[in-house]
Design a protein that fits this description.
The structure holds 2 protein chains of 2 kinds. Chain A is about 35% helix and about 35% strand. By secondary structure, chain A is α+β, with helices and mostly antiparallel strands. The mean pLDDT of chain A is about 90. Chain B starts with a strand and ends in a 6-residue tail after the last strand. The mean pLDDT of chain B is about 95. In chain B, helix 2 crosses helix 3. By secondary structure, chain B is of the alpha+beta class. In chain B, about 30% of the residues lie in helices and about 25% in strands. The longest helix of chain B is centred in the middle third of the chain and has 11 residues. Chain B is globular. Classes of the chains: A alpha+beta, B alpha+beta. The interface between A and B is medium-sized, with 28 and 17 residues.
């Protein structure tokens, strides 16, 4: 990033409350700079198996720092005009929103690519712990092999 | 006093989320605290020694076992993370 590039505004949050995708996305439209594209990703708690609920545990302070760090990496890699990440914590039921990633840029390619990058990185690098509640009991999850492979593929492209 | 935190599955394994340790004058790095835990809390020390991929954080910043530590600090042990 050269000295004349404006800093990309970054906002992150780890919160118990639900979020409003429309409000978060419109906030990105309003970023200074010639925003021509906003890409968003919303993660939901899946409803297709026997998971009764998920519990997301966070470490206040460090969790937000990890989200900020991932966003800063994306801002250093692509010419972006705004990044917003909201990750919910606490107990979440199937169908509930769990994470929002929004990226603004001048053109669609950078916004789509950076949004995909952040969605992948969150799986293995956001400081969060996820527990599944099923009728058979509770299980703490760890990143899958597929999640690790997705993150590794971004490093190979670097 | 040193505040020690455990998260996720690790908290279940050690049987607590938080532990307060009296500050020992000889402690300089995280590994010094770990050595003391083997004597004072052997069950916890064994879990920490066995778990693969644990991250260490001092005052909410990721560090290594050689990270400096001081009285009143917050030391956290983090099992593998997953978000999204």
């Amino acid at each position: 990033m050269n000295a004349t590039t404006p800093a990309c505004p970054i906002q992150v949050a780890a919160q118990f409350d639900d979020f409003d995708v429309g409000a978060l996305t419109r906030r990105l439209y309003a970023q200074a700079g010639a925003v021509g594209a906003v890409a968003t990703f919303v993660g939901l708690v899946r409803t297709d198996d026997d998971v009764l609920a998920l519990t997301l545990q966070h470490y206040p302070g460090l969790t937000e720092h990890s989200l900020q760090q991932l966003a800063a990496e994306a801002a250093a890699r692509w010419p972006l005009l705004g990044i917003e990440i909201v990750h919910r914590v606490g107990r979440l039921n199937p169908g509930e929103q769990i994470v929002y990633v929004g990226v603004a840029s001048g053109h669609r390619r950078e916004a789509l690519t950076a949004c995909s990058y952040l969605a992948d990185q969150l799986k293995t690098r956001a400081i969060l712990w996820k527990q599944e509640h099923r009728p058979t009991g509770d299980t703490w999850l760890e990143p899958s092999d597929a999640d690790n492979a997705s993150v590794a593929s971004w490093h190979q492209q670097a | 006093m040193l505040r020690v935190l455990f998260f996720g599955s690790l908290a279940e394994q050690v049987g607590m989320a938080e532990l307060a340790l009296d500050w020992q004058p000889g402690w300089q790095q995280v590994q010094d605290v770990l050595a003391s835990l083997h004597r004072s809390h052997p069950a916890i020390a064994q879990v920490l020694a066995k778990r693969r991929g644990l991250l260490i954080a001092v005052n909410q910043r990721i560090g290594a076992a050689t990270a400096a530590i001081a009285d009143q600090d917050e030391l956290a042990f983090l099992p593998p993370v997953t978000g999204g």
